[in-house]
Specification:
This protein is of the alpha/beta class. The chain has one domain: Alkaline Phosphatase, subunit A. It has 14 helices and twelve strands. The strands form two sheets. Strands 1, 5, 6, 7, 8, 9, 10, 11 and 12 form a nine-stranded mixed β-sheet that branches. Strands 2-4-3 form a three-stranded antiparallel β-sheet. A hairpin with a 5-residue loop joins strand 3 and strand 4. The longest helix is centred in the middle third of the chain and has 25 residues. It is globular. It starts with a helix and ends in a 12-residue tail after the last helix. It comes from Pseudofrankia inefficax (strain DSM 45817 / CECT 9037 / DDB 130130 / EuI1c). Pfam families: DUF1501. InterPro entries: DUF1501 (IPR010869), TAT_signal (IPR006311). This is DUF1501 domain-containing protein.
């Protein structure tokens, strides 16, 4: 039995031990509410990072409607100035982004233009790895916010484990690489219920996960993680299984115990998913809305978390882009607008800044399938009550291109350095490299 158990734990560690080996864990809503009572959020900024997987077409999100080169490059995909939502400088927002347009008008949306990194890579995997690790020149094994977590733990080595675990939270079924450090990692919080194995299999797994003094450090960590699965599943079942008394209030204000899996109610003016033909249907915030509902609940409850990671996928629009992107941007708009409404009047909400990015934009010219292929630079959105709305960075030229791609005008690490220092009140050097200096932006 010891030999078989050792082989089992090694296999478990290889296939599923990233979060365990890095110190991450799975938290229940009960854990979060307990933390909000014992160590409530007090002062300081909160950063919410929204990752758009697939490569969002920035030219059809922040639209250069007055530039004739825009329509010439993509005549079927282009939006006219009359269709889009006007900003300034000849630019406009995608017609599905009505909620974000309202934030722009109230000076709470910043658009950082032409964001990218040196020597761009068209690979989803490599480009996303660069954005999540903030290491364009080397292959890094830690995320940029994971290194921030490592620095926090080093600065406060005597902090209770519950405090350390709650510094960052990754919402959803997977732990985002950007919040995995060398010695610490964000806690993972699901948006729905899950079950641990039951019956004979469950009994056998419980035996295999029992602590053993002969275990090495990694095996002990994997065994502990496996045992926690059963504890967490048991605690989550009564919380996530009952939806009738946990739905969102009609006003759009989120209760601390709200179940994000319950049917969402859009905030006033939010535009949801695009339906057939690309028309927008109000109120469909999708899975991103469920994730941000969890974040809003934590913030309103005073959970002492400084960083949240959420995501929305599907932006790899090689074919029939217009309807697909309209649907996804509608979900993004509905989710972000509802989130801002939920935290807007809460005392903790004033310190929240939300950052929205994708691994790359798309090429300027449309392809033959009414879509666009992998590109380079794209806009980054920053929103919140502390944000100084407006444009930052230069708008890339649509005619002075790099082999059909936009030339980046803002290094993405300038965005990261800015939020590290001005939202998280932390030194950027330990995260981005002490030898590097990137101009700080003034959106916060």
């Amino acid at each position: 039995m010891p030999f078989d158990r050792r082989r089992f734990l090694i296999a478990s560690g290889v296939t599923g031990g990233l979060a365990a080996a890095a110190g991450g864990g799975v938290l229940t809503y009960r854990d979060l509410h307990h933390a909000s009572t014992e160590q409530p959020l007090a002062g300081g900024g909160v950063l919410v990072v929204v990752t758009l997987y697939g490569g969002n077409d920035g030219l059809n999100m922040v639209i250069p409607a007055d530039d004739p080169a825009y329509r010439a490059a993509r005549p079927e995909l282009a939006y006219s100035a009359g269709e889009a939502l006007p900003l300034s400088d000849g630019l406009a927002l995608h017609p599905a982004l009505t909620g974000l347009h309202g934030l722009w008008n109230s000076h709470r949306l910043a658009i950082v233009r032409g964001v990218g990194y040196p020597k761009p890579d068209h690979s989803h995997f490599r480009s996303m790895a660069i954005w999540q690790t903030a290491s364009p020149d080397t292959v890094a094994t830690t995320g940029w916010l994971g290194r921030w977590l490592d620095a926090q733990a080093k600065a406060d080595p005597k902090a209770a484990s519950s405090v350390t675990a709650l510094r960052a939270i990754s919402i959803g079924p997977t732990l985002a690489p950007l919040v995995v450090g060398a010695s610490t990692a964000a806690a993972a919080v699901p948006t729905g219920s899950f079950k641990a194995p039951a019956g004979a299999l469950g009994q056998e797994l419980n035996l295999l996960y029992r602590p053993d003094r002969a275990d090495g450090p990694l095996a002990a960590r994997v065994a502990s993680s496996g045992a926690d699965l059963f504890t967490v599943a048991g605690a989550l079942a009564p919380v996530l299984g009952t939806k009738s008394d946990q739905t969102q209030a009609p006003t759009g204000q989120l209760d601390a115990g709200a179940d994000p899996a319950a049917g969402p109610t859009a905030a006033a003016g939010a535009t949801g998913a695009a339906g057939k033909g690309g028309t927008a249907a109000k109120g469909d915030a999708g899975e991103l809305g469920a994730q941000l509902d969890v974040v809003a609940a934590c913030i309103r409850a005073g959970v002492p978390t400084r960083v949240y990671s959420v995501n929305l996928g599907g932006f790899d629009t090689h074919t029939e882009e217009k309807a697909t992107q309209a649907r996804l941007l509608g979900q993004l708009d509905a989710a972000l607008t509802r989130f801002q409404s939920a935290i807007g009047t809460d005392p903790h909400g004033a310190g929240v800044t939300t950052l929205v990015y994708s691994e790359f934009g798309r090429r300027v010219a449309a392809n033959a399938n009414n879509g666009t292929d992998h590109g380079t630079a794209a806009p980054v959105l920053v929103l919140g009550s502390r944000v100084r709305g407006g444009f930052y960075g230069d708008q890339p030229s649509l005619t002075n291109l790099d082999d059909g791609d936009l030339k980046a005008s803002t290094d993405f690490r300038s965005v990261y350095a800015t939020v590290l220092e001005r939202v998280l009140a932390s030194e950027a050097g330990p995260v981005l490299g002490s030898g590097e200096h990137f101009p700080r932006l003034t959106f916060v």
